[in-house]
């Protein structure tokens, strides 16, 4: 089976045919979705969605793009929700080097890392032009459960820095673009136990699908690109990826 380890199924882009989409995914053997919440306002929607669809697993966090509006109250609410619900991770959190206010982004990133550590949970991390800002904070907080570097792009050395900290790399549409030479080179060499797959749907359309709404169905395409880059058989790759996820996340029965 396949898991889309990062897709925003709660987004309005999927409102028109979410039921059908999940059925189509099941036909493709895509039976698990990790759905990260991005703002406190959207968290209830993510929780509701994951109650409705047992194949969807929630994690909640304050995404760096919306940190300007985030407050201490949001962090308190996050702690409360972590106590109440079976959340599998804290995320999506991170630092985005391409947008403003790195100080507040860093402050909220670190605070959420500490919350994850306190609750013994992994984190789902957004990065862009920010490996040099994220790695030192991860080293400093030293999470027990590690996490996923979502939509990893970068060199093998950058990947290795995360792997050494107990992280796995979310491999997505980036490897379908031949121009992503550095990332493709890194993905060829990654230890098998550090790879998970994701689409980031509705964002990040694959090569050949630019301008379209991305879909978790495309995890199959990402997987076939991965197969072309790796020496292992598709069976071995698929099984290892699922094991990597089960090792990181506690997929227990939701209530
Ligand atoms: Zn995302």
Note down, in words, how this protein is organized.
Its EC number is 3.1.-.-. Keywords: Hydrolase. GO terms for molecular function: hydrolase activity. InterPro entries: DNase_TatD-rel_CS, Metal_Hydrolase, TatD-like. Belongs to the metallo-dependent hydrolases superfamily. TatD-type hydrolase family. The chain is an alpha/beta fold and 255 residues long. The chain has one domain (2-248): Metal-dependent hydrolases (TIM Barrel), CATH 3.20.20. 41% of the residues lie in helices and 16% in strands. It contains 9 helices and 8 strands. The chain has helices at residues 18-27, 43-52, 72-84, 102-118, 131-141, 156-163, 181-189, 219-229, 234-248; strands at 2-4, 30-37, 56-60, 90-96, 123-128, 147-149, 167-171, 195-197. The strands form 2 sheets. A 5-stranded parallel beta sheet has the order 4-5-6-7-8, with helices on both faces. Helix 4 (102-118) links the parallel strand 4 and strand 5. The protein starts with a strand and ends in a 7-residue tail after the last helix. The relative contact order is 0.15. Bound molecules: zinc ion. Residues 6, 8, 36, 92, 150, 200 line the site of zinc ion (ZN).
């Amino acid at each position: 089976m396949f898991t889309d380890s990062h897709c925003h199924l709660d987004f309005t882009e999927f409102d028109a045919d979410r039921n059908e989409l999940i059925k189509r995914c099941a036909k493709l053997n895509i039976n698990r979705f990790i759905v990260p919440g991005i703002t406190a306002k959207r968290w209830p929607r993510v929780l509701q969605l994951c109650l409705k669809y047992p194949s969807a697993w929630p994690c909640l966090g304050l995404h760096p793009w919306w940190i300007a509006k985030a407050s201490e109250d949001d962090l308190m609410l996050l702690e409360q929700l972590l106590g109440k619900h079976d959340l599998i991770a804290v995320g999506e959190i991170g630092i985005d080097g391409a947008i403003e206010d790195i100080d507040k982004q860093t402050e909220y990133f670190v605070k959420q890392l500490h919350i994850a550590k306190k609750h013994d949970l992994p984190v789902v991390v957004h990065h862009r032009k920010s490996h040099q800002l994220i790695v030192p904070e991860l080293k400093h907080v030293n999470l027990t459960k590690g996490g996923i570097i979502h939509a990893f792009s970068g060199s093998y050395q950058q990947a290795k820095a995360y792997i050494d900290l107990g992280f796995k790399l979310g491999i997505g549409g980036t490897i379908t673009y031949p121009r992503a030479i550095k990332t493709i080179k890194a993905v060829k060499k990654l230890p098998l136990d550090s790879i998970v797959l994701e689409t980031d749907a509705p964002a990040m359309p694959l090569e050949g699908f630019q301008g379209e709404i991305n879909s978790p169905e495309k995890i199959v395409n990402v997987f076939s690109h991965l197969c072309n880059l790796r020496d292992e058989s598709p069976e071995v790759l698929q099984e290892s990826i699922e094991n990597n996820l089960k090792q990181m996340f506690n997929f227990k029965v939701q209530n």
